[in-house]
């Protein structure tokens, strides 16, 4: 048997129906993908067959993101690769056939680990017209397919006020929709380079209207120079937007290139803010020096669905 090879059909924002092909056969790159060439599905399958003939051991097929709300998938084409699967299995080699592969793999990992609550987050995808909303939605659906009993929380960007993109995510029905305001209104423009405080509040408000059954969640960091009254006002702003869950944590300067730390808050101060938040009507508040967005996330979902272990997955 020859050494492992990998064939990947990877998603790019090319016209619907086209695929890019990157093949690594016998550990020797043969990369059409790097040159930006695109193929129709039939040509991509032909490339897959050539890779198998040359000893490719893993066949990994995913869909193509073609544009906002327009996604090409190989879901209906799986039967067309059945022959390729059989050819590889006949040689006792390994086959991975998945649709929109990396999303399916998230669902499979959740099922294999028997997780009961998952937090999905990502870097900002501002290069995509929908800000990555379709990716979030597809990942939620794959988790639902692979492990229906698992609850899902998503930590999303503001999609630059693209409310159609937000609707894509809410239509996938996550249990918790999280978007952090990060800081108080006065400091927002300095702390957040692109996101806007009013826009974040509007996103949270709209998310609740789009799916009233979902819990909405947000968080702030302390230690950037905010005043106590400003923190309380930020909490009131979140409640006015219908937010159910809030996290309050200590800002720690990641590097000398980031904003300087103004002061550390004491555990007692965090406890006081938690009491104030609960008095305002938040269903749940995590407040403490070590709190981050996903801190004790498994304890924040609706009663009766309290999972035992969370996981954070980058998409």
Which features would summarize this protein structure in a list?
315 residues; alpha/beta; TIM Barrel; 2 domains; seven-stranded parallel β-sheet; 14 strands; 32% helix; disordered N terminus
Describe it for me?
- The longest helix is centred in the middle third of the chain and has 14 residues, at 133-146.
- A 7-stranded parallel sheet has the order 13-12-11-10-9-8-14.
- It has 315 residues and is of the alpha/beta class.
- It is globular and about 65 Å long.
- It has 2 domains: 6-89, no CATH class; 102-314, Alpha-Beta Barrel (TIM Barrel), CATH 3.20.20.70.
- Helices cover 32% and strands 20% of the residues.
- Helix 8 (228-240) links the parallel strand 11 and strand 12 (245-250).
- The protein has 9 helices and 14 strands.
Short description:
The chain is of the alpha/beta class and 315 residues long. The chain has helices at residues 41-53, 82-89, 101-113, 133-146, 163-171, 188-191, 197-210, 228-240, 267-280; strands at 6-10, 18-25, 28-31, 39-40, 58-61, 64-67, 70-72, 117-121, 151-155, 176-178, 215-222, 245-250, 284-287, 312-314. It has two domains: 6-89, no CATH class; 102-314, TIM Barrel, CATH 3.20.20.
């Amino acid at each position: 048997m020859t050494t492992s090879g990998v064939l990947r059909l990877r998603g790019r924002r090319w016209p619907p129906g086209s695929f890019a092909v990157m093949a690594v056969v016998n550990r020797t790159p043969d990369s059409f993908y790097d040159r930006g060439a695109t193929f129709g599905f039939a040509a991509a399958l032909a490339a897959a067959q050539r890779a198998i003939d040359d000893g490719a051991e893993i066949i990994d097929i995913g869909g193509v993101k073609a544009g906002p709300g327009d996604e090409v998938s190989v879901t209906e084409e799986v039967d067309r690769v059945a022959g390729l699967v059989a050819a590889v299995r006949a040689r006792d080699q390994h086959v991975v056939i998945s649709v929109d592969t990396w999303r399916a793999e998230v669902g499979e990992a959740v099922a294999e680990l028997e997780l009961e609550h998952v937090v999905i987050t990502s870097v900002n995808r501002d290069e995509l017209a929908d800000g990555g909303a379709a990716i979030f939605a597809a990942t939620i659906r794959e988790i639902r397919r692979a492990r229906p009993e698992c609850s899902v929380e998503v930590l999303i960007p503001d999609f630059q006020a693209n409310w159609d993109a937000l609707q894509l995510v809410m239509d996938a029905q996550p249990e918790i929709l999280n978007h952090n305001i990060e800081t108080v209104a006065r400091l927002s423009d300095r702390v957040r380079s692109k996101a806007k405080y009013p826009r974040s509040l509007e996103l949270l408000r709209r998310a609740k209207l789009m799916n009233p059954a979902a819990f909405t969640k947000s968080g702030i960091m302390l230690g950037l120079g905010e005043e106590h009254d400003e923190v309380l006002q930020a909490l009131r702003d979140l409640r006015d937007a219908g937010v159910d869950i809030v996290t309050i944590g200590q800002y720690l300067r990641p590097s000398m290139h980031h904003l300087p730390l103004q002061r550390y808050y004491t555990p007692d101060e965090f406890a006081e803010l938690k009491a104030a938040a609960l008095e305002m009507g938040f269903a749940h508040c995590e407040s403490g020096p070590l709190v981050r967005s996903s801190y004790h996330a498994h304890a924040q979902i609706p009663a009766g669905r309290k999972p035992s272990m969370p996981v954070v997955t980058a998409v």
